[in-house]
Amino acid sequence: MASNKKTGWVFRNTLLASLALVLVLIGAATPAGVILSTARYTQDSVALLQPPPPEQGGTCISGFIIDRDGQPTGTGWIVKITSPDGKTTSGQAGTDGRFLFEQLAGGVWQIALEIPEGWQPFTPALFPVTLGGTGNVCANVRFQVEAQPAAGIGCIDGYQTNQLGQGLSAWTITAASLDSSEVFTTTTDLQGYFKFPGLVSGKWTVKQAQQAGWLAVSPAEVEVLVEGSASCQQVGFSSQAQFACVDVYKKDSSDGSGLAGWEISIKPADNGLTIADITDGTGWVRFSDLAPGAYTITERPQAGWQATTPITMTVQLAATGACELVILQNQPGTAVTQPEPVEEPQTLQVEQPKTREKPPAKPGCRAMYRVKAGDTLFRIAKRHEISMHRLLRYNPIPNPNLIYPRQLICIP
Fold this sequence. Notes:
This protein is mainly beta. It folds into 4 domains: 2-147, Sandwich (Immunoglobulin-like); 153-240, Immunoglobulin-like (Sandwich), CATH 2.60.40; 243-338, Immunoglobulins (Immunoglobulin-like), CATH 2.60.40.10; 360-412, Roll (Membrane-bound Lytic Murein Transglycosylase D, Chain A). Helices cover 5% and strands 41% of the residues. It contains 3 helices and 28 strands. Strands 25-23-20-21-27-28 form a 6-stranded mixed beta sheet, with no helix packed on it. It has a 4-stranded mixed beta sheet with strand order 6-3-10-8, with no helix packed on it. It has a 4-stranded antiparallel beta sheet with strand order 5-4-7-9, with no helix packed on it. Strand 4 (78-82) and strand 5 (88-92) form a beta hairpin. The protein starts with a strand and ends with a strand.
């Protein structure tokens, strides 16, 4: 703490318990009763700033200095106050950007922030504060600053979304200078946002990397003129998924745990070929590369378990880039005996792009099973309660000991 009995001010580096109200410098004041926090200031909390209302403070002025992102700016900042009779007092803010002037007389004071080289004010750096001259409640103020952009340095940012405007994460975005050989690559975050900071002024091309199963709705590459400014040039990309997918979870309804080794099948609701798969250790299985539309999902009952959700349900799948979620639940008990469905050989009716793998329609197939890592023909035959001889008769595989993940096996 530093004090001056002649001028009657006190300047401190730490936050005192008396800081009970937060006012802001542009737009509107914060509601009375808000206590200053040592937590990070959010962009929302720093967006509305203005001088304190008249006589809001008694005999002291307190506040803090933050940057445009709501972070403390470090040491070395000088704050000055000028009394109603024209006398000026200054002090240095603490390491957390906080300051406090006490023992001030009533009247209109001017408070100002000295802006050092390399910085510029984001909110006013000078404004009046009216004190009542009695009581211990301080007038609370806040300064917000931003770093001056380096000469000739700018940035580009934007979003990668689907056709519904939803952000797409983990998409690769590239920025390449047309004036030099500089190339930068980044990936979108969970909201689909990307940013290229610190770009040299000039012409740049920004490009989205198309992913399999997606079509560009907006141009996949745009040209941007970057200028030396703290504000980024904004770019937006939009893509539309060609296929739909669904995540199915098989759970024990008694404790919510996943059930492994359950056969789940899916087929178009309006007719088509059935595809079956087995849940993994978490009770999960995914069916992807599906044409948008209605599908029927069915679980195969197991002895010793009783379904607590329908064993067959119909879902409407859309090509959004996100998988629809379906949860099927069972509990230990007596399983309902279900006749094993027998389907006539059918061919998927929906026309697909040439790049899509099309399961073959084989005569006598009850379902088509997609091989997963660790599968063997023996295990597949045992799981579906058929003999190896019968399985091989419908699947003329040259080497029965050699099968591959995602290979389709006819289940007779």
